[in-house]
Specification:
Chain lengths: 438, 528
């Protein structure tokens, strides 16, 4: 009577199952596959040089990944896509303004921002979590509306209070009337590249900035080692097919980068912001590690069924608040990383789109409202930005107007969110009706 | 056992939205005592237990009256967490499982084994890592105590209900500070053999000094293992009896308030044998209930019983024909080939199914009772609808009439057809499931375990309704049940399933010995 037995699966059923598996794979990853194709087509149409593309994508992926990763934990806790990360972004931005005002630059300045923003985001996360607990099941809409509300408060503080009630005497930052922060803040010669380029202010421009082929070769070798280790480890997490596919991909990367190094092509000019990558890798490791802890398990339990979790004695509301607090802190750090790379930002606008774009990137990677993984987040960032890079020139090639491509990518960002939310609602409906049939 | 009471409930009362569902209930349980609680569907048994376990339904609807004492101390229990801290465990009437977790994860839910790591030294208990190997070991031990052989690393989704039930029970007995366990109809979804191994486990738990509150509708179980039995009727305390001082018949009478007769059916004369449904070499891959090649012929207008021991595959047959589990083989309805693995096709062929897995499954919990009864007929048959050109409207008059008829026939205890299903007692929710299938007017009705979780009085009503549909509407009924007595009381023929195959077909009045031999698979061995 052992349930795991699969005694009667015959050959033909095996065939049907494989077919079903493939079909299931295609339908489940429809969005990702579509964007893969779109990105590839766009790249071919745009006729971009691989060098320019690589340079751009390395920058964009490095600056955006942290922010998108901050969305994963609330999904785990069953709270959907956390649009309230905009609040965290605002907090991060506020700290950038203050630290710029204090005149602390470079890596120490960035670290100071991150340390000081943490209690603020924990506080904001606490309030947001409280609000979400009052609106269970409606967290996404609540988050969107909260972001609008917070925008008002933010404007009040930075347009009316700073320079007035909150004294800040700074010609560069404050408007000429003496009240309110200017509409753009320039971080050059200050916090710009604080994390990406820590040697800049020390006169060591290549400190922690290896070239791309070196980093890729490192990944190729280390990745292959990891795969082989996983394959031979006791837990058998890796199938042989995956092992071979993984090693083949890594080998291709390795061959490419070694070739570039030998040829001495332009690609050797691309430098990787290693410290930023280490920070992102650290976050990935943390999220993975966290999902294996007691609190992580509680979040997944709450995410599956609040009622059952509560009956098992899990403090559902508390767990949900913690999830939002963690996400909020990560978002504020993520936004700081984002802006130190941009080098300048619009005081009253640059956080507005953060929620939307991050969510879109996550969804493009194949995540859903109820399931999101680290891999999906990273893949999503890559595909999303590929589209950003190629669409203007693809638009120019096709329609003679770069603006068309520009519109297209905005359209895509909103479109993918709309479609995913609709698909989520539809799936729920399907589930309900299939339950009826049984 | 002359010690002091471990638990005492005094003068407990509860009102839901103005309706008094419990009134002045008194109950005392000693350590090591198995205390039975019996009563009709809707008598208030689960409500009483929910009060004891601090469930939020109780406190969000105005709390309760009376007092609860544990070890002589007056306690107020506002949440399940507080109940657990007091050493109370509960197996709820509806499943409290997380389907995408493994059995281990469910058993150890919120009591996970932890091991420290670098970060937990900084951030405390909550950041400790899960120790899966010791969790698995403990889950294994709990399952072994119940003598369940299923692997602990299997995911719960898709398991047969019996295994789900044992997973819940294992979770409770795995708790270390346990003083009292509440079992709310644990045997309702179990086959007889599974139920008896559960009863054995309960006895040995009680011998360790743990008190047990046991709710069931199988009165023979109560008489078999309980030391004392409390009877509730319509929310009132009727009697508390020692086991020796009572018997099944008296309990039934106390519950229902009148004498309960056994169901017997006046069998009709032999019908013309016209074949309606032919099953050839049916294989169904249903974990725990594998069907390994069944050949069966069902005649027009008969009631066919399917019996057999748990795990032998009797449950899988109906599930396979209805397309709910992957299956292979040939099924002909009136000579026409049925496309397998597609529930929609099966429904359109006028097949209807009352699944054995009824607890909460398939009901729209937030909708009204009447809507739940007619929804399938509306969706699949366009009935109960008024057409005005391109517009269609629900025919609320006919829905109401039909619902009232069903409520009367199956004795669904409710405040009216508009009551929300969520607010019905567990047994009455099951009656709604049966009513919904009957409303489909199916040509062939599959019912699995139709009387599970239904009280003695109502049991008869359900069986009578089936017989009536069979005789008056000519409905062909295939009834799967693990209660042989029930099968023998209303069916025309009984197929016994052993080892995933039909071992033989008997008449209801064949001797017990014949049934026993077929079920244990001995006849086939002799033949071989
Ligand atoms: N959440 C609720 N809201 C309103 N009424 C409720 C609620 N839960 C139960 N009731 C009502 O309380 C009464 C007692 O229900 P309860 O679930 O305690 O019955 P039970 O004895 O457990 O029956 P069963 O044997 O069917 O499980 C029923 O009339 C039911 O309709
Ligand atoms: Mg009940």
């Amino acid at each position: 009577m052992r349930v795991a037995d699969k005694t009667i699966v015959s050959q033909s059923q095996e065939g049907v199952r494989v077919k079903k598996k493939i079909k299931g794979f295609l339908t489940n990853n429809m969005v990702t596959i579509m964007f893969l194709i779109l990105g590839l087509l766009g790249f071919l149409i745009a006729g971009m040089s691989p060098f320019l593309f690589l340079m751009d994508i390395v920058t964009r992926v490095s600056r955006n990944s942290f922010l998108v990763l901050s969305l994963i934990i609330p999904v785990m806790a069953g709270m959907g896509l956390n649009f309230s990360i905009v609040l965290g972004a605002m907090a991060g931005q506020a700290l950038l303004i203050f630290v710029t005002h204090w005149g602390i630059t470079g890596l120490p300045g960035i670290l100071l921002c991150m340390i000081l923003v943490t209690p603020l985001s924990i506080f904001l996360g606490y309030l947001t979590g409280k609000l979400f607990n009052k609106a269970k099941g409606q967290e996404m809409i609540a988050g969107l509306i909260l972001a609008f509300f917070a925008q008002g408060v933010y404007e009040l503080i930075f347009l009316q209070l700073i320079g007035g009630v909150i004294p800040m005497d700074n010609r560069v930052l404050i408007m000429s009337s003496g009240v309110g922060v200017r509409t753009t803040v320039d971080l050059s010669f200050g916090l710009k590249y604080g994390l990406d380029w820590p040697g800049l202010t020390l006169g060591m421009p290549t400190l922690l900035r290896p070239t791309l082929p070196w980093v890729l070769s490192f990944f190729g070798v280390a990745g292959t080692g990891l795969l082989i280790f996983l394959y031979f480890s006791k837990k058998m997490v890796l199938s042989r097919l995956k092992l071979i596919a993984g090693i083949a991909a890594l080998a291709a990367v390795l061959v490419f980068s070694i070739n570039e190094m030998i040829v001495g092509s332009q690609v050797n000019l691309i430098r990787v912001p290693l410290l930023t990558w280490i920070v992102i890798a650290g976050l990935c490791f943390f999220i993975y590690f966290f999902s294996q802890t007691k609190l992580g398990q509680d979040m997944r339990s709450v995410g599956q069924d609040r009622h059952v979790a509560a009956v098992a004695g899990i403090q559902v509301d508390r767990v949900r608040i913690i999830a939002i607090m963690m996400s909020m802190v990560m978002a504020s750090w993520g936004h700081i990383i984002f802006l130190q790379n941009m080098g300048a930002f619009s005081t009253y606008g640059s956080h507005e789109q953060i929620g939307l774009y991050s969510v879109a990137a996550l969804l493009i990677g194949g995540a859903t409202v109820t399931r999101a993984t680290i891999g999906q987040a990273l893949l999503g960032v890559f595909l999303f930005h590929t589209l950003f890079i190629v669409s203007p020139s693809a638009g120019r090639q096709l329609f003679g107007d770069a603006q068309v491509g520009e519109y297209f990518r905005v359209f895509v960002a909103y479109g993918v969110i709309g479609v995913t939310l609709a698909m989520h609602a539809w799936k729920k409906l399907l589930e309900a009706s299939s339950r009826l049939e049984n | 056992m002359s010690e002091k009471n471990l638990l005492e409930m005094k003068g407990i009362g509860k009102t839901y939205f103005g309706t008094q569902v419990l009134k002045d209930i008194n109950l005392g349980v000693k350590p090591g005592e198995i205390h039975g609680i019996v009563g009709e569907n809707g008598a208030g048994k689960s409500t009483l237990m929910n009060i004891l376990f601090g469930m939020s339904v109780i406190h969000s609807t105005g709390g309760y009256d009376g007092e609860i004492l544990i070890d002589g101390q007056n306690v107020e229990i506002f949440s399940p967490l507080e109940a657990m801290e007091l050493g109370i465990g509960m197996v709820h009437q509806e499943f409290m499982l997380l389907p995408s977790y493994t059995i281990t994860e469910n058993i150890k839910l919120n009591r996970e084994e932890l091991k420290p790591n670098v970060f937990s030294r900084l951030f405390g208990q909550n950041i400790k890592s899960l120790d899966f190997s010791s969790m698995n070991a403990q889950a294994r031990r709990a399952l072994d105590k119940l003598s369940i052989s299923i692997e602990e690393y299997v995911t719960v989704a898709g398991l047969p209900v019996g295994y789900m039930q044992f997973t819940e029970i294992a979770r409770e007995i795995d708790k270390s500070n346990l003083k009292l366990i509440v079992f709310d109809e644990p045997t309702a979804v179990l086959a007889e053999s599974e139920a008896s191994s559960l009863l054995e486990a309960m006895k040995s738990i009680a011998q360790q000094g743990i008190a047990i509150l046991f709710i069931t509708h199988r009165l023979d179980e109560v008489v078999e293992i309980c030391h004392n039995i409390t009877v509730l009727r319509d929310g009132q305390h009727v009697a508390t009896k020692g086991r020796k001082a009572t018997d099944v018949y008296e309990l039934a009478e106390l519950m229902v308030g009148r004498k309960v007769e056994k169901m017997t059916r006046q069998k009709k004369q032999v019908k013309k044998k016209e074949s309606l449904l032919q099953i050839e070499n049916l294989i169904v891959h249903m974990p725990g209930e594998e069907v390994k090649g069944v050949d069966l012929e069902v005649f027009q207008g008969e009631i066919l019983g399917i019996g057999g021991l748990a795990g032998q595959g009797k449950v899988g047959i109906a599930n396979g024909v209805m397309g709910l589990y992957p299956s292979k083989g040939k099924v002909l309805i009136g000579g026409e080939l049925l496309k397998l693995n597609n529930p929609r096709v099966s429904m359109s062929k006028k097949l209807a199914y009352v699944s054995e897995d009824r607890r909460g499954v398939g009901l729209l919990m937030d909708s009204s009772l009447e809507m739940n009864i007619v929804i399938n007929a509306i969706q699949n048959q366009n009935r109960f609808i008024l057409k005005f050109g391109p517009f269609s409207l629900l025919n609320s008059r006919s829905i109401r009439e039909h619902a009232l008829k069903m409520i009367k026939e199956l004795d669904i205890r409710c405040t009216g057809p508009a009551q929300v299903v969520k607010h019905l007692s567990g047994g009455n929710q099951q009656k709604v499931c049966i009513a919904r299938a009957l409303t489909m007017n199916p040509g062939i009705l599959f019912v699995s375990e139709p009387t599970r979780g239904i009280d003695v009085g109502a049991k008869r009503l359900v069986l009578e309704t089936l017989v009536q549909l069979n005789e008056e509407m000519g409905m062909t009924i295939i009834m799967t049940s693990s209660e042989l007595g029930e099968l023998r009381s209303i069916t025309d023929r009984i197929a016994i399933v052993t080892g995933g195959k039909i071992a033989g077909i008997l008449k209801p009045d064949d001797s017990d010995v014949d049934f026993g031999l077929l079920m244990s698979g001995q006849k086939s061995r002799k033949g071989a």
